[in-house]
Amino acid sequence: MEILAFGVQADERPLIERAFEGYHDVHCLDVFLTEDTALIAAGHEIISTSVNAVLDHRVLQILAAGGTRMIAQRSTGFNNIDLEVAERLGLTVARVSYYSPYSVAEFAWTLAMAVNRRIVRASNRTRDFDFRLDGLMGRDLRGRTAGVLGTGKIGEAFTRIAHGFGMKLLGWDVAENPACVDLGMRYVEKERLFAESDLISLHVPLLPATRHVVDATALKAMKDDAILVNSSRGGLVDTDALVTELRAGRFTGVGLDVYEAEAGLFFLDKSLEVVEDDTLARLVTFPNVVVTSHQAYYTADAVGQIVDTTLRNVLDYTAGRRSENVLVPRTG
């Protein structure tokens, strides 16, 4: 059986091909799954998609009409898939429930330190042989407060690093993580976390209840010199409200690895095009903002685990097995 994999990055391709060798043929495409590309999947019972694929009702209908029966998503998040429509069309959907939490947690800290110590500005200067220190002053994080929204596996890994820095720890989640409590974390209401934290990092999934959890009210409650990091999902932050606060000169720094309108932009080369997203265009002009292209998960360790789990999901489907990774089970 040939499996069609959409949205495959160049570094990811050999890992996928090597993992599937001896099991199934896999054809890797660098194009993302959208309504315009869905027809390519015709005749393929199984396809694999990336987190930036668009799997709305129209795309799912095209896939089902073309003979697709199984979608193996290469990510933990699945907010890009209309699961109700998939179930109605008889499409099996599986995801990757777990991969290295350290990849994302460590990258979130990379963003935090980059904006705190002005690393991008310093690097750009030294390329021009400008070695002044003006405007590069950061601050120690030891003794300051880290606020962690979402203390699952990734949030816990982030918390352990914060503890290593000697920071005070505040957390917010639907349930307390005993490992974080053992590190000295105090769980508080998110309003208090926003108001008291010097560094805020987001590690919650994107759900209706968490969409724009960082809204205009939350942003205004934050300290003027706070650092905000989002390496989870772009929709957690009201970007227009964030731009408003940045224009007012607030925040030491903002590190964003995700953006709520990133579909059709991230993972693609848009350098020769006019980007029509005025919010993103304004966002990247702020000197205290670092935006990266959804790469927090992108380590050999994490991607290897994602690929291996995707293979297991495909093998489970062909064998008629069901695992904890299945979002919509096989019906036939």
UniProtKB/TrEMBL annotation:
Q: Which family does the UniProt entry place this protein in?
A: Belongs to the D-isomer specific 2-hydroxyacid dehydrogenase family.
The protein depicted here goes by the name 2-hydroxyacid dehydrogenase
Keywords, ordered alphabetically: NAD, Oxidoreductase
Record-linked InterPro entries? D-isomer_2_OHA_DH_cat_dom, D-isomer_DH_CS, D-isomer_DH_CS1, D-isomer_DH_NAD-bd, D-LDH-like, NAD(P)-bd_dom_sf
Record organism: Streptomyces bikiniensis
Pfam families given in the database record: 2-Hacid_dh, 2-Hacid_dh_C
Q: Which residues form the D-isomer specific 2-hydroxyacid dehydrogenase catalytic domain?
A: 8-327
Q: Which Gene Ontology terms cover its molecular function?
A: D-lactate dehydrogenase (NAD+) activity
Entry's PROSITE patterns? D_2_HYDROXYACID_DH_1, D_2_HYDROXYACID_DH_3
Which enzyme class?
oxidoreductase
Protein EC: 1.1.1.28
Which stretches make up the D-isomer specific 2-hydroxyacid dehydrogenase NAD-binding domain?
110-296
Keyword NAD appears in the UniProt entry: yes
